[in-house]
Amino acid sequence: MDGYYGSYILVAALLALGVAIVAGALLANRLLRPSRPTPEKLTTYECGVDPVGEGWAQSQVRYYVFTYLYVVFAVDAVFLFPWATVFDAPGYGVATLVEMFVFLGFIALGILYAWRKRVLTWT
């Protein structure tokens, strides 16, 4: 398969082969499995708890806020660990240290804002 389009043809052939294998496996599963639906099997199952009531339930906003705060701390860790590993290398000096403290200052302001709004209290 030489030429410009040869590699594309190879990728398309491998993609078609992969789709055919997956489709064949799903078809074989459908043909070979037993099908005995009962009302008990058709009920919704989640975490071992029988479904009671409606399927609609509201969750409180504070759970989303905790999720966002976790994402902020995860991003903070993503920036801090590589910085800590290369900080001692030559060429990284006071400017890098100042930049990291500015970044940590922004993170601290976010935490202070969340604390002042009483987001971090679990009630």
What are the defining features of this structure?
single chain; 123 residues; mainly alpha; flat
Structural topology:
Elements: H1 6-32, H2 39-42, H3 61-86, H4 94-116
Helix pairs in contact: 3-4
Protein name: NADH-quinone oxidoreductase subunit
Function: NDH-1 shuttles electrons from NADH, via FMN and iron-sulfur (Fe-S) centers, to quinones in the respiratory chain.
Family: Belongs to the complex I subunit 3 family.
Structure summary:
It is found in: Cell membrane; Membrane. By secondary structure, the chain is mainly α. The protein has helices spanning 6-32, 39-42, 61-86, 94-116.
User: Major sheet, described briefly?
Assistant: none
User: How many DSSP H or I helices?
Assistant: 4
Distance between the termini: 66 Å
Structural class: mainly alpha
Describe the structure.
This protein has 123 residues and is an all-alpha fold. It is 65% helix and 0% strand. Helix 3 (61-86) packs antiparallel against helix 4 (94-116). The chain starts with 5 loop residues before the first helix and ends in a 7-residue tail after the last helix.
